[in-house]
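Please predict the structure of the following assembly.
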Amino acid sequence: MNRGGSSPSAAANYLLCTNCRKVLRKDKRIRVSQPLTRGPSAFIPEKEVVQANTVVERTNFLVEEYSTSGRLDNITQVMSLHTQYLESFLRSQFYMLRMDGPLPLPYRHYIAIMAAARHQCSYLINMHVDEFLKTGGIAEWLNGLEYVPQRLKNLNEINKLLAHRPWLITKEHIQKLVKTGENNWSLPELVHAVVLLAHYHALASFVFGSGINPERDPEISNGFRLISVNNFCVCDLANDNNIENASLSGSNFGIVDSLSELEALMERMKRLQEEREDEEATQEEMSTRFEKEKKESLFVVSGDTFHSFPHSEFEDDMIITSDVSRYIEDPGFGYEDFARRGEEHLPTFRAQDYTWENHGFSLVNRLYSDIGHLLDEKFRMVYNLTYNTMATHEDVDTTMLRRALFNYVHCMFGIRYDDYDYGEVNQLLERSLKVYIKTVTCYPERTTKRMYDSYWRQFKHSEKVHVNLLLMEARMQAELLYALRAITRHLT
Amino acid sequence: MEKMSRVTTALGGSVLTGRTMHCHLDAPANAISVCRDAAQVVVAGRSIFKIYAIEEEQFVEKLNLRVGRKPSLNLSCADVVWHQMDENLLATAATNGVVVTWNLGRPSRNKQDQLFTEHKRTVNKVCFHPTEAHVLLSGSQDGFMKCFDLRRKDSVSTFSGQSESVRDVQFSIRDYFTFASTFENGNVQLWDIRRPDRCERMFTAHNGPVFCCDWHPEDRGWLATGGRDKMVKVWDMTTHRAKEMHCVQTIASVARVKWRPECRHHLATCSMMVDHNIYVWDVRRPFVPAAMFEEHRDVTTGIAWRHPHDPSFLLSGSKDSSLCQHLFRDASQPVERANPEGLCYGLFGDLAFAAKESLVAAESGRKPYTGDRRHPIFFKRKLDPAEPFAGLASSALSVFETEPGGSAMRWFVDTAERYALAGRPLAELCDHNAKVARELGRNQVAQTWTMLRTIYCSPGLLPTANLSHSVGKGGSCGLQLMNSFNLKDMAPGLGSETRLDRSKGDARSDTVLLDSSATLITNEDNEETEGSDVPADYLLGDVEGEDDELYLLDPEHTHPEEPECVLPQEAFPLRHEIVDTPPGPEHLQDKADSPHVSGSEADVASLAPMDSSFSLLSVSHALYDSRLPPDFFSVLVRDMLHFYAEQGDVQMAVSVLIVLGERVRKDIDEQTQEHWYTSYIDLLQRFRLWNVSNEVVKLSTSRAVSCLNQASTTLHVNCSHCKRPMSSRGWVCDRCHRCASMCAVCHHVVKGLFVWCQGCSHGGHLQHIMKWLEGSSHCPAGCGHLCEYS
């Protein structure tokens, strides 16, 4: 491990934010010391994650029951802030990785690696490289995609699309994979693979969104192990998350601000709730609101002064550690705004025409039995999870907020709910939050601590983790919906 | 469509005519509804809302209700319903949560009447009161149901399901105030329209969302529900608790269910996903649909019977953008294609066989004794009361009873248990099996074994000699031959020595053969018979007769081939061909063999007399025997096996097949072998001879058969705490939420091999315990017990 390694070459392994990179480029000799990070997350102070005894007990029990590696990893630790959810998460993950399924165990881990590699999430890659070898995978495959069977390689296209632009998946893609031939996939296998891909794309979002730290003591350092890379820019980490009250340290003056921010949000929610009754938005207005929201999501990121990269500029800057890129092809392929492409107009995905509850579930459960129930429970759990609190306030109905978050993610993937007034998104989600959401769901590898800190300053960390869970599941569902719709079309 | 037949039904004056037909819509349909006069149908979808007139030959578009420059979301319909009292009144549920009513009597082009925007989420269902003109009910994704009076602008009352989204609402046809609603979480609720505060009754009907429900048009209180769990259930609501009366298992989640008019037990269903057909079920026969309509190319989204009193016309709309009229008599009937036959064993070996009457009649007319032929030994056909089932199809049931002397099957069990099938040289196996058969009084079988031995083993190679051969040294054949020649001369002079050596040999073979002395006797018997001049004495049938004659006739013909043919087969008795055979017994035998063999090679002299002593008895034959290649007999052996199998003694066929292994396998086609194996295994399991059946599975070379051992290898465990089975995972109890088997060394859950001390019942990971006990003799749990690991 090169933790604390301060040579420039080691520093180059870290994903840097543009500012730092510019500085670095100017002065090649700069020595950046990598602070030791403690705790499971770089964003959340360790003591926030430490829990009451009963919760720890429950978590440990869950880990015993479902963990594939047998250890309490950082993801689990952060998620254990929401034990209820953790259980359904671990259960479904365990089912995908270990229980009866059409794919052999090493395949499953390799697919997880491929999925995580799309977002350069070395944390997940490392984790699954270990598991891959442990389950009897062929070590040679870890040298890169050229070494894997053609069959797995064929999954690349769908992995790429699913990760960045799921709306482009068509039944032709499915047909290409399942058409009879030497390397064909059976439908159950394909569904299993798709579920795994979607799960790990979404999990990568969570890892970056919550600033999950690399595991502290990787047990075996065999030759195939990648160099564990912390993906957070040093400037974020240098910020200090070891200092108490990290979230507040940056801005004492912000307290007043954020307090009023919170009040304002509460106020708006209340107003929206009351308004509902006598509000008379015309239909045209409703549909334009969706379009507006869709379009606006375009500018959300580029408007941010600190972390904006015009597309082209970013591409040449993109650091892809060679360790990661060997698992993917076409690394330049990334998220492109759904609303942007004026030339080819893609139809909006009408949520009511292909819902998870009616259609997605039936299909997935038919081809890969029982996973439907587990995913269903997980989606339901995350959507309904609430403690009726908002920051310091209690007894708040947060349904509206949760729905706004969920639908906003779907909106960015071009999924529209007829019965949702997208004006609400504008009212409830402030700009910095939108920036965060968009980054975490669309290009999670660019998430920085600053983004994480800049929204909802009054909120507890556990609430922000809750937001991350929502984003993760919304993203997973969106990917699944597109993929399953393509499979359905292939079937009919 | 292709079928031009018309159906005319007289229904109280009005006459319904039509044929199976379909028409193309511009867009996928989400729902359809029929007008009271049965002459018009309305189709609604995301981008379609039209009324079609149903004419005799075709559908004719009558009205497009989707007007306006830019169609708003209010027109994106999730459901549509036509009032059954008022021909001009329609209601639609929009995906954006708006309920719209339409009045066809309006003079303007836009027929939209009223707009209710009270629901916050998509409205899934609207329903008019069956008799009241102005009452409309809606159920929405937001979990609320609302009742509207069309004379007022707002809802009259709101019902809160207190649970998740409402999927369907239906007014009861018989009870004026009652309506049923179904929910996404699997519940069904019963409401009184006058009491919006709480539901009258609630019960869980399905696992997962209940997509639809329908009240029975005649039977009061019968409610059919269909859910995502692929089931259709019929509930009786008249009793205190809702009682499930029927349950139909379909192959996909059920999207719509509609009772068939005039047929008390029939209902039509269509599915949400994957399956495009419409089925009509008789709920009393839940396994095979009574009728099936296969016209649609994509999922069917709406079904409706054309007239409330006519059971033959069904209308349907589909995602494939088509509207269809189905005629019941044009439906395909899966029952027709099914072969309704059932076969079952009773507790005491009785066999019952049910089949379609026509089939049975034909069969019994042809040959009453076919049944006997198939089960010649075990069963005879006793009674044949061709009693038809009370169901729709008439079928005949035949029962074959076990013969009174059913205990005669004892021989089967004994044989199965005592036969040796592998692990020894061929000659020994044959001898052993022949002896077993003889002891059980099955002389024919015994003779067969003896002959097999004669065919496939050269006579000089008796048990001990065989042992030496199993090593397969290249030169040993020559050696053997030489021995047999030389010893013929030497033997008389060595008489006393031979005795001695022979007993030695016996002692040795004891290690591998349980009763070698008995075998020896058999050998002697065996050879005596062969030596006798009257072959007819022991001939079993034509087959064996020819067999014998042939090899007597033709001794020198194949002589030159002998060494190649005989040696390899004997040198590697069986075991090399067998896949997946555990090495256990063979290894032992090999170990026992090898020192013996090396010894025997060292002093040929001591071994040689031993051989000769046996050969002496039938020297003349020995010479002939060894000249014939076993290949020569393979046809006969094959016929013999077929003969036994045909006779019903599949045990013999399989046993010989296993014992001879490679020698005959290629002559019998795979499928027949597989068939024999499975029959034999089935029989063995019926007699609970699990060990034998497993051995047979293991020794079989057929892929399909050896797979049997690899299927359902799950070991079920019970929780050590609550004694209940741990179903989902083997290491955690769902009920008491404890991890069962903890390792006493590392204190983690054991998910693989668990070893425990029988003294103190503590244990853990195999490796951990092994390691622990290397260093300590006490139990790792600290109970003070002195555990042992061996």
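The radius of gyration of chain A is 22 Å. Strands of chain A lie at 349-350, 389-390, 393-394, 415-416.
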